[in-house]
Amino acid sequence: MEPRSSSSALNRAQREFSRLEPRIPAAGTVTGRHLNHLGARLASDHEVAWWQAMEKLRERFERAMAQQLARLGLSGSMYLALEQLALNAGELCIAEVAEKIRLSPSSTSRVVDRLVREGLAVRQPGVDDRRSVHAAATEQGRTLYEAARPAYRAALAQALDESWYAADSADERRPPRRRLAAAGG
Fold first, then answer.
1. What does the alpha-carbon distance between residue 53 and residue 172 come to, in Å, rounded to a whole number?
2. How far is CA 12 from CA 3, 6, 19, in A?
3. How many other C-beta atoms can be found within 10 angstroms of the C-beta atom of residue 83?
4. Average pLDDT of span 103-114
5. CA dihedral 156, 161, 163, 164 (to 10 degrees)
6. Residue 65: is its pLDDT beyond 60?
7. Is-contact 46 183, C-beta < 8 A?
């Protein structure tokens, strides 16, 4: 068997691309959509502006949440982990908590460790697999979660209010669903 040269592999790749090329739209606008050189859709200016507004909203929410939850001795990550533990009657594997709160398992493990130190959660070996680590909210943890939930929602309401009323125009002050409907989205 003859060894394949890199030039023959390149030639095959070029032939394959030229075979597909007619199906790939040219860069530019096709039927009102912006495309890159590979034919993938690009976000419109309106979508980029919407995304930037959502990022500002997220920043406002995180700032307001940190202020509200700090009064109760919780960080945002602690609240989210405690919420998952309190809402699930039994125990959750640390990996499940991590997935639900969108943190890495190692970061979630550190958050749960802090909840355990504060008496808000307990760690337990898994029932079916003793190598896995599970956590559950304590009664004190469930009580604190119930007290913190209104603070979390107040932070969200504050961020939404600030984003709607801090907007530059009356159109931007409309709630997002109305803005999207008005824009045809």
1. 10
2. 15, 10, 11
3. 19
4. 95
5. 140
6. yes
7. yes
Q: Are 40 and 33 in contact (CB under 8 A)?
A: no
Nearest to 136 by CA among 105, 87, 90: 90
CA distance 56 to 96: 29
Please answer whether residues 151 and 71 qualify as being in contact, where contact means their C-beta atoms are separated by less than 8 angstroms: yes
Q: How far apart are CA 84 and CA 100, in angstroms?
A: 8
CB atoms under 10 Å from CB of 106, counted, come to 10
DSSP 8-class letter at 4? P
Tell me if the pTM is above 0.70.
no
Cα atoms found within 13 Å of the Cα of residue 52, Cβ hemisphere only: 9
Q: Residue 15 pLDDT > 70, yes or no?
A: no
- List the one residue out of 70, 62, 60, 83 whose CA is nearest residue 149: 83
Return the SS3 of 122. Answer: strand
| Per-residue confidence band for 113, with pLDDT thresholds at 50, 70 and 90 | very high
Q: For the chain, what's the residue count?
A: 185
Q: Is the CB of residue 164 less than 8 Å from the CB of residue 175? A: yes
**Partner residues linked to 93 by β-bridges:** 134
- Does the structure show a pLDDT above 90 at 120? yes
